[in-house]
User: Fold this.
Amino acid sequence: MVRNLGRKRLLALLNLVGVALGVAVYLAIQIANQSANQSFAAGVDLVAGKAHLEARGKVPDALYPALAATPGVSAATPLLEGVLPLPDHPGEYLRLLGVDVFSNSPFSTYVLGGFRVERWLSGPGQIAVSEAFAERMGLKPGDTFTVLAASRPQTVTVAFLMQPEKGRGGAERFAIMDLGWAQELLGRQGQLTSIQFLLQNPLEPDATAAALRAQLPADATVDPPRQRSRQLEEMVGAFQLNLTALSLVSLLVGMFLIYNTVLASVARHRREIGILRAIGASRREVSLLFLGEALLFGCVGTVLGMVGGILLSRELVGAVSQTVSSLYVLTRIASISIDPWHLAVAGVLGVGSVLIAAWNPAREAARMPPLEALAPGGYAELPSPRKDASWLAAGAGSLGLAALSAWVALGWNIGWLGFACAFFVLFGFACFARAATVVVAWLAGVLTFSGRPVLVRLAGQGLRRSLRRNAVTVGALAAAIAMMVAVSVMIFSFRNSLEAWLDRTVMADLYIAPASNEVIGLQDVLPPGAVEWARAQPGVRCTNTFREMPVLVAGERALLSVVERGCTTLPLPFTGGRVEEKMARFMAPGAVAVTESFARRFGLGAGDELLLPTPAGERRFHIAGVFRDYTRDAGVIQIDRAEFDRHWADPGINSLSISIHPGADAAGIGDAFRHHFREHGLYTAYPNAALRARIMTIFDQTFAVTSVLRIIAVLVAAVGVFLSVTTAVMEREREIGILRAMGASPGQVRGLFLAEAGLTGLAASGLGLLCGGVLAWVLTGVLNRVFFGWSIDISYPWLLLAATPLWIVPVALVAAWMPGWFAARRPASEAVRTE
Assistant:
């Protein structure tokens, strides 16, 4: 077998590439996910790696002495966290940690090189940055650089370089500053974001935690630091799971590729199989020959895939980082993290999938009677209505299981059943591949009667004679097409739903926000007087304001969206009808509205009560309705500004939207705002069209990873067509010789196999389009609802779908060109020597 592979280098290379691609995509996704989780953990570890408990929230620093003196606390230190964008380096930022050096020593997880306390406290702007960050930015102690703090450009000085303690993960984008100077820099005097605690008895923290909670504001939390890292991982878990599922599709298509390869090898070695069996080789020995060939592909391809996965992860990690930052939490993955466990799993999946794919062809080779194997000519599969009916029944049963899985997944919110539903749909339509091949072969015979199309008729007969092999090729290519179609329909539907949602929510002419929020999210606020100034400008008709802040619901993090609806006349996009009635309830005192993702996550809906922590204690709110929202999948609660002001003393706003009178200049108002408030900081002013374009750019970035995966799946399946035609050439060597002896030209022989490949592509296109249409509903209506809670109105890009056969069939023809060329070159005398 090894000697033979040396003679068939192209076939061996294609198989190695197929296995390697499947393993590489799976491993790259796992590495990207792991790197994101490590990035979260490194940030949490640097802030609170040694603490037993941490109090988080808006904590007045005046509470620190009393909290530090709480019974059971052995040490405490206050912290202030913030994010500093770097205006001279677009997209870059630093996470700032304000610390008290006099109480922080027992908690410190980093080392400051050459630290001197007098330099640390000598004046504002003294900052310590990581050695990795300094090296990347070309900074050294004494250098200065510009940051955006509270939306204002400010200069800071590199006082010291820091590095994490041995054994702790690095956090390149972290910086340390004295607590007092950090409060001044960020404009948050008297505020803390957390207080870290070491306990006298770490194994029994409950009593101490309860005593600390009793002294803190109602909206603050007391938990072990590791819980925060775990919550972040859970937040992005659904996104990561979906990526993993998509990555396995490439591995599945690679299995079809190996199946066809071993099948081709069986056809190529029929005579050798007959000789081995005739001289006493057992069926088990013959089977092990072909399993050994597959194992060789699997081992070498898996090793290549691991190397490729590490390289590919460096490209995918950026796309994953962008999506996580857009939808969940600000993060920048500085370096990839490779877990040996993921390498081991990738190895098992790569080798295991190859052996599974090779099992049936190897078994059939072992069961081939010696006399049949030694007989000249190719193998023709006899018509078997019973077998056809069995496959149709299996397909119908699989689709029935898909429907059952969807019903249970939606009814009980069981995520893994959504993937089971998708699998049953793919498997069900794969079972119809045999019938699809028969139908296309029959049409080729019915629709061609004379002249040159007779080649198509012969191709249809060849397709039918090798139905078992061709059905697998059709099924593999159809599966890849189905995934491509399903993802395309999902993205198209999502885009249309998003645009319809934007028509109801992004209606103002101008949107103004702190420039720093472009990088750090909705954290900085507009200066005092911004709203009053805007309302006083000529040409301004009305304004809306928006604020977003984290809140705790049943101990889990959600987002509170505060909206002042000065301009908006349209109601929220409530689900379930009675929109005007729900809007009236929402505007009444004591009411909020929640997004679909929030309702899914917390099991709450219209008419339920929601308990929210406020600075004055927990307050109960009535849920007026559930509305569509595509900004966050973690869950958003919307509250009217007037109702918010009754419970929270927080006048800050993150953004301001302005509607103008006809003829007024929106861009001019934006420029005037930036000029008027230039001493307060830097601000962005987006006209309506520019903001919509930015939102759609973020949308496209979110689905960049899925585009890579579906392209790879189609490429692997196209290789399957090449192998299928190559096998057909080997099986029908005698038939080719007879045709050539009867006068068929090389071009006609080549055309015969191109026609067969074209029919294969046509059958796969039809089956793939049908399967993709159903699978698209699973992705949008089941998986999307179960994991993210968003309602997406499914819509089909009919022109794109109709064009699918127009490029799939040419891809199949290109894949078949080389095998057809080799078939046309075979001398007729060699093929008919045994006649």
Q: What stands out?
A: The first strand starts at residue 53 and ends at 60. The longest helix spans residues 283-327. The CA atoms of residues 232 and 329 lie 8 Å apart.
